[in-house]
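Q: Structure tokens for this one, please.
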Amino acid sequence: MNVYDGQRIAVMLEKHGLSQTENLEEADLIILNTCAVREKATNKVYSALGRIRRAKKTSALFGIVGCVARESGGDAFKRIPELNFVLGPQSYHKLPEIINNPDTKLLNIDLTGIEKFDELPQITKSPTLAYIPIQEGCNHCCTYCIVPYTRGREISRPFADVVKDTINAAKSGAIEICFLGQNVNGYKYTDENGKLYRLSDLIKEAAKLPEIQRIRFTSSYPTEMSDDLIEMFGTEPKLLPFLNMPIQSGSPRTLKRMNRPDDIEVYRNIVKKLKSVCPDIQISSDFIVGFPDESDEDFEETLNIAKEIKYINSYSFKYSPRPHTAAALMPNQISEQIKSVRLQRLDAQLNENQREFNMSCIGKEMVCLCEGDDKTKRHLVFRTPYMQQCIVEKPDGDIAPLQKIKITDANKASLRGEIIK
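A: Here is the predicted structure, written as tokens:
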């Protein structure tokens, strides 16, 4: 979501006469686009702001946008008095006010709607992978999660607006579409005629575009995996055989305290349905270890579900208390030492799963999307249909962004391959 917002902000500011620079010292306007999902991310923001105010030229304007802006509100000005603006996730389109009124501090953390999508200009040249937000906010209110506070309650964008953005992306260079939302598969929009549209309808519309060859979505909520959406994995070849479906914990007791679906059989049945319609589908997940009052038995259940589902790529974190969340006030907070030990054990299992799947890909041929040069400029980085990174020796001359690649080697982190000519 932040990548998309950053791209649209850049286009908007370019239309107001600004151009991007990588040199902090010469910048006239400096924007930190922020995430508040974990405490460490918020701390990094204020560390960076401290460095910026010392390094920037005196006349430069700087501030924060995004979830940390919403979380901190006016307190951000107290912590960093030199800040010029603090804009929440729905207020990016207010940035031109800063340009036109540089002597005015701007605080806007409005959560009333998604007008920013109307205000921000269309991108005129899309990258090969285009992110298309379809909804913001979340109604599930997991007890550890700050999203309902920073992004607000769920709002789905009008179906026609999302289709318009998708067509624009396709016509301006996109080959892959990734639909975005804090609860992306909870997308529901009813038009003026009473017709209900869901994520499966957006996938069907995107698949009609000849320029679009790959479609995916993130991040999904387990119980929002409706049958019509599951069926798409079996009927739409452009929908990649890969799904991020966070489980967070394998313990029903912990999931209940998280205010997440605590019937593990429901999750297992969704996975079974997915594999029945698309045998090649692979699942990734998110995990939180050390949630308040998590016992050793609770953690063992998390290890067991990781072994059972064999997630091919997962994100795992130590529980981080966030302001405005119920879990931050729960008793029996787990020590950092126990969290670290549990995270190390879980990561070892998840890494084993990932390495095992990567090794199973050796010898296979996959159609992969080129993401550009690696750091050495001697290789190209591709992304497989399962979101694995595949490194390929750079050929002479230009190549099409989609290439059939034979996988020749693998490790835990990535694959190696060669282009099939």
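A few notes: The radius of gyration is 22 Å. The first strand starts at residue 29 and ends at 34.
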